[in-house]
Structure prediction request, 1183 residues.
Amino acid sequence: MLEIKNLHVKLEEEDKQILKGVNLKVEAGKVHAIMGPNGSGKSTLSYVLSGRDGYEVTEGTASLNGDELLELEAEERAALGVFLAFQYPVEIPGVGNMTFLRTAVNAQRKARGEEELSASDFLKTVRAKAKTLKIDADMLKRPVNVGFSGGEKKRNEILQMAMLEPKMCILDETDSGLDVDAMKLVSEGVNALRDEGRSFLVITHYQRLLDHIKPDVVHIMANGRIVKTGGPELALEVENNGYADILAEVE
Amino acid sequence: MAVVDQFEAKEGVDQETVDAVREVSTYKYGWNTDIEMEYAPKGVNPDIVRLISEKNEEPEWMTQWRLDAFARWEKLEEPNWAMVSYPKIDFQDQYYYARPKSMEEKPKSLDEVDPKLLATYEKLGIPLKEQMILAGIEGAEDAPAEGRKVAVDAVFDSVSVGTTFQAELKKAGVIFCSISEAIREHPELVKKYLGTVVPVSDNFYATMNSAVFSDGSFVYVPPGVRCPMELSTYFRINAENTGQFERTLIIADKGSYVSYLEGCTAPQRDTAQLHAAVVEIIIEEDAEVKYSTVQNWYPGDENGQGGIYNFVTKRADCRGDRAKIMWTQVETGSAVTWKYPSCILRGEESQGEFYSIAIANNMQQADTGTKMVHLGKNTKSRIVSKGISAGKAQNTYRGLVSMHPKAKNSRNYTQCDSLLIGDKCGAHTVPYIEVKNNSSRVEHEATTSKVDDDQLFYCRQRGMDEEEAVALVVNGFCKDVLQALPMEFAMEAQQLVAISLEGSVG
Amino acid sequence: MALPEVKQKTTEARLASLTLPEGGCLDAARHAALSRVEVTGLPDRRDEYWKYTRPDLFTQATAPVAVVSDRSESAIFDEFDRIKLVFVDGVFDPDASDAAVLEGVDVTRLADLKSRDDHWSKEIYGVLEARGQSPVARPLAALNTAFATDGVLIHVTSTPTKPIHIVYKQSSESSDAILHHVVRIDSGAQATILEDGPAAARFNTVLEADIADGGQLHMVRTQGREHERHAVTHIFSRLGKESVFKSFTLTVNGSLTRNEAIIEFTGDDAVAHVAGASVGDGAFHHDDTVFVTHDAVNCESRQVYKKVLRNGATGVFQGKILVKAGAQKTDGYQISQSLLLDDDSQFLAKPELEIYADDVACSHGSTSGAIDEEGLFYLRSRGVPVEEATDLLTLAFLAEAVEEIEDEDIAATMVDRLHGWLARRG
Prediction:
């Protein structure tokens, strides 16, 4: 599904290398987790994969099912199936959540040469999916993320994921700012979307999210590289001993 | 224009293809109607003024009123304080009166109107038929199932070609007709109100309009009547080298209500054309008027060639207590816009509102805003202005909020926001605030910024291309104003926002 | 283009009443300034830039009489260790002044340049003023450059240990002073300049401040309590890369005051804050006119102006942020607010933005109104008498402007002054 080879990235504005040779392969249907201390480059990886401005790839490649990602515009990557659940979902005043969703869904369908969804079909689908995420009609009417609580914003991200049906979902610190109940709700939403054709890259600080979204593979990232890879037990190790031991061991 | 011309010139290209090309080109209304016209000689002088008066079969007092205005106008100088620049206008090198030959004999009903003219309005999406206007998809659930009625007065160059639903309106006591008809049929009303809100001496363009206006709309809503449908005037400039000078007079008598819509388009031509209108609104006690405009005059091409010079004076006078006026405007067209729909809040507890979206792209220049003149006690006003600049355009908000000493306990709130798309355009804010009593409160806020990168990235990550993302974010930016429009207009305006910004990114 | 007749006459009459100082290295600058005045003419009420303030008393040939205050002027900065430079009726008084011996600072008297063929100030005198004449003409500043009879030229080469204090005194009720100061801050140096006092019956000052890369200039001035003073002042400031300019003005009463600040960013990453608190009573007309030009990347400007007006006083604010094409990442902020303590007072404002770059965040706000009734009630319900409560809310209203002063001791002095004004409740 996703294959990253020797990825080096620096910030465009300052001469600062953030990623220093990331290698990663996520197979179809699998859930990979990336853990690591602050400043290790986890969020940068998610932005570079989804095509945010401000980063310069100095070396390496990233592809999704054989399609090179790094040369594409953000929306082209989205149409190929890359979805980023933002750590801080952006507020867009004045733009209704529904309008936003419908525009996005139809833009992607158009890009893939599919028929646009009719207004009534769209409405039915959204309402059904929103219900399982406990998103009420009022939230759908309000402007995108404006005045949403932390939990509402994250649920809204998962609703978008459900509607857009991406292939490669990247969850950037989706657990941040969530209480236990909200985390459970969001995780259930994610788990419901797990299937053979869809992969996940879950970026998180803490093991607790991984109690709910069970990963197949866990990577530890530090200083711009993946320094250790293992099974779910690796996350528990971090939980119990912190990163220090692992980092010391690697060095 | 050039592109479309070429398509038309090619043999074997069917009309459908031509239309399709037009649809995708940025300005959808740039075609012209090939129709035999009758012109007054070029230029303006007392003879032309008399001729216009004569064509409209006006009484002597009206002719004299015009001639007085002309004498004044000759002594005035063009104002130059707005942040717009354009080549000097030769006022003698254009036509002041142009009417389709077929209008020589006034049609007695819509059935007698030249089919070519009817087709023109059909094509503009304003069918001159007495039919329901069906609402579109978005928000359709709020619309009555059978649609809504909108009465239309259609002004083509210098004359009104027809007004729909007149009979039905008459039953309710509402007079809705062309101003030329009103001068003939309701002289007592015209005499009483014309020039009382925008005096003949008001400003260069208003004075000029007073001398040479050829037609326009007239509305009178009698006491206590809620106008049973929306009224609208659609202005079309078609003839070349011809200025359009229309005059609109709306009177809402005590306790009445009317919602009035105004739309305008013109063909693409590479010489600029002048449009200088005056709108006067009188609102008596407890009456309310909503005046909405979607201004989509031809803006000129991307090099600033051609387009309409839109110099307009609009003013509402809230004469009675608790009178209300709401101006909403979506200004996307014109090469140059000079327009400040204003509110005189004379009656106690009267209210004025001004909602504006002004989009300037390519070489367009817009200098627009409002005046809120608080004279009465407990008056309220609200200004929400959203300016969007793109390309090499200049967009200025200019406004006045004035609290007179006697306007005790009055309130104003002003929010004016500007959005810049690209680094070649300009966005300017020039508010005047004059507070002369201390029980009134005035608040003014303004911001200028560019389209937020994070918002664009968020949209694009979800699959929208850049133009779509910009249009979405800009529509969100304009939301407060779009919401103030009647529903049919809101949808049109929303699409217009997107179309007006085409080519502004990337 | 010929000037309108009235304007031409006023200008000629005013020019005829003055003598152009001759000799020395500033001759060329003075003559150039004189022609600027002749081209534009002196301002009159028809000028848009003087829409809210009548300039007649500034342009008439003779100064309007202003009674010399018999109140012993409380020496506001006395508690601070500083170098004093004293002017009486616009003439430098060496006896009353401290010997300007301060390491890192060179002070020259403008009047002494008559006999000098060369001086560093030649590169600045009239130069910043001339730059500030576009896009809006400021003929009273050009008039000043041409005819200034005295002033100080301060060159700061390294950071001095104490502030420089310019003290103005008035002794004649018909004095008419034109003073012109120049300040040059060298790269990396920092200085504080204090200014206060009534100066003259009529008073026209220009201060040109050129701040080199990384330099800092802090200015705090007070304009005294005399009711009859007529003052027009201009500060022209040019900022180099990473430099800082901060200015605060406290104006208490005065018959007619127009303070203009013209700020120009020419180097990237610089910061300029201009602030003013003015309180006026009765026949008080106070005008703050500010023009900030961003012509560099990533600069920050702030304009904070607060006015408290009572007994028919008039407050005017005209402020503009101009962001030129290419001045990306500009952060421009402007706030002008007035508190009208009674129904006769008025506030007239024209806060403007003119922006030609897209990657900017500029905003302005302007409000006018009476004292917050709810706040007043809340304080009274807690036992605070109405007058004291009003004072408390008035000071709170002015606080945002006073907070622009970096030095806390000086800020405290300003608050004391404001207390004094409130205590003299009319």
Remarks:
- The mean pLDDT of chain A is 90.
